[in-house]
Amino acid sequence: MQELAKIYGETLLLDKKFSYCPGCGHGIVTRLVAEAIEALGIRKRTISVVGIGCGGFSHHYMEIDAIEAMHGRAPAVAVGYKVAKPENIVYTYQGDGDCSAIGLAELLHTANRGMPVTCFMINNNLFGMTGGQMSPSTLEGQITSTTPNGRDVHQHGYPLRVPEMMADMHGAKYVARESVCDAKSIRKAASSVRKALDCQMKGLGFSFVEFIVPCPTGLKLSVPDSYKWNKEKMVEYFKPQIFKNEMEQNDEN
Amino acid sequence: MKSEPLFLKNAQTFAEAMVRCGVRYHFAYPITPATEVMKHTAVILPQYGGRMVQMESELAVSNALAGCACTGKLGATSTSGPGMSLMQETMSYMAGGELPCIMLDAMRVGPGDGDIVGAQSNYFQATRGGGHGDYRVIVLAPASGQEIVDIMPDAVKLAYTYRTPVLFVIDGVTCTMTESALFPEAHDYASEFDTSSWAFTGTGDHPKRYLLTGSYTHSQGEELNEKLLAKYELIKEKEQLWEEIEVEDADVVLVAFGIHGRMGQDLVANMRAEGKKVGLIRPISLWPFPDKAFEGLSDSVKSMLVVEMNHGQMVDDVRLAVNGRIPVHFLGKTGGDMPLCTLAEMTAKINTLL
Lengths: 253, 354
What we know:
The structure holds two protein chains of two kinds.
Chain A: H1 2-8, H2 25-40, E1 46-50, E2 65-68, H3 74-84, E3 89-95, H4 96-102, H5 104-113, E4 118-123, E5 126-127, E6 133-134, H6 153-156, H7 163-166, E7 172-179, H8 183-201, E8 206-212, H9 216-219, H10 223-237, E9 241-245
Parallel strand pairs in A: 1-2, 1-3, 3-4, 4-8, 7-8
Antiparallel strand pairs in A: 5-6, 7-9
Helix pairs in contact in A: 2-8, 4-5
Chain B: E1 4-9, H1 10-20, E2 25-28, H2 35-44, E3 51-54, H3 58-70, E4 75-79, H4 81-86, H5 88-97, E5 101-109, E6 115-118, H6 123-128, E7 138-140, H7 145-161, E8 165-171, H8 172-176, E9 178-183, E10 210-211, H9 218-238, E11 242-245, E12 252-255, H10 258-273, E13 278-283, E14 285-287, H11 292-295, E15 303-308, H12 314-322, E16 328-332, H13 343-353
Parallel strand pairs in B: 2-3, 2-4, 4-5, 5-8, 7-8, 12-13, 12-15, 15-16
Antiparallel strand pairs in B: 1-9, 5-6, 7-14, 11-13
């Protein structure tokens, strides 16, 4: 373990056992966030505000202070924190249910407020912790435990695209959607995590990254099949892209 | 800021008092009659290096307040009836998370959207908790602008000493009344408390710390509740506040808080002048309820009258406090053009008990 710490630094707690299910996309995103914190040298002044759901576990694997918020309210907690302690770096880590169902108002107003905080939305397109119910981002026709005949858009509405709603907000300075379905996508996602936190460090405004991740347990698929399903179905509707990058004029993307 | 008398609406007095005692961040959403507080802090807080932050809802308000409290700094909010209902989830959260803050419920008529006229109909919500779980918050009910000023330093000290939300419940009549109050020199009481042992300020000077809102093991949940229970027992023992007037030889004791308690001061003076033995107990802390005020009542007390701007809420606590020893009567009114019981109505009722 000591040698791994030499490579990965102090942020990621490598001796902690994951409580994520095997193959869960949270494991990848949690590691990307920890690596970005380490690389940016902000561990000692970074606070994670986690949502309710599997994403709530993410801070367990990092040596940083954390606040577990009530369901959906993490962005509001982050705003209050940042108002009182602007020198610290505060990010939220929430699932798609926490972020885009119960907490959509707090998220969008936080984006529009333009305060330099960062929100990470880990979209596995269902409620994972409670056992695979429909979330706002469940695809049309997708079978879940609460849509046994598939999501009927006339009854449940359409899969909700969140960063698209922020793209026109002046307060949002970095807005991206990434995927973790293959190595190339993960490299891009790593870059977006760093940029989102860097955006906050520079005090430019709100930053947001959505991650399309598989939930093999909720999807009732094998791990390889869940990644394949994500790559073929999810990414088709939720297209990874940088919606906005107003960090620097000559910045990439 | 030096000691000075100010002639203000009591909602503004609340704003002045909390800022002068150390509140630096005020999160709020407009609602009558509490809006006056945020209008005032929007003007004065920048002078103290602070901010009023208008949020998009009371849900966001209370959670931003929780985020602020996590830094160890003192934040506040102010709202009225329906807004208070929306904050109940966070009240439970902040009580469980042991986060200090100052809150105000400028009480108006309910249920539902109710009416903007003053009331005391949130006594149950304030003292029993509208949120989930076994929790309590300290509830204070000053009855005048001066008492708001006088009690604010204690409120800040209580919030940090016990690491708990401190909730002011002030009826809308008192809140919208304009009167003078003498402010002592401004003093930041919050900064006197060392929060470094618990605040979530980053791992620069402490190992990882996190605010746990749920229990990952059943024993963790039990431990948290036992810790909270011990704290609540200590508060009940040490922090009961009340005013009492001429109860020693009274035949009838009036029990009222807020504006009715203030009217009771006149009532006792008037009736004593007529030779009628009437006394007053005016609870100032509603939780902990001042049970001690009732423990020592003499055998002369034949009956008690509880007067409230509701249909009978605090009266339950008075009945529990006297535990059947003394008959307890009730007079109350809520809503309409005149939510108060008049002095004449209160006097007439007491005359039937003498």
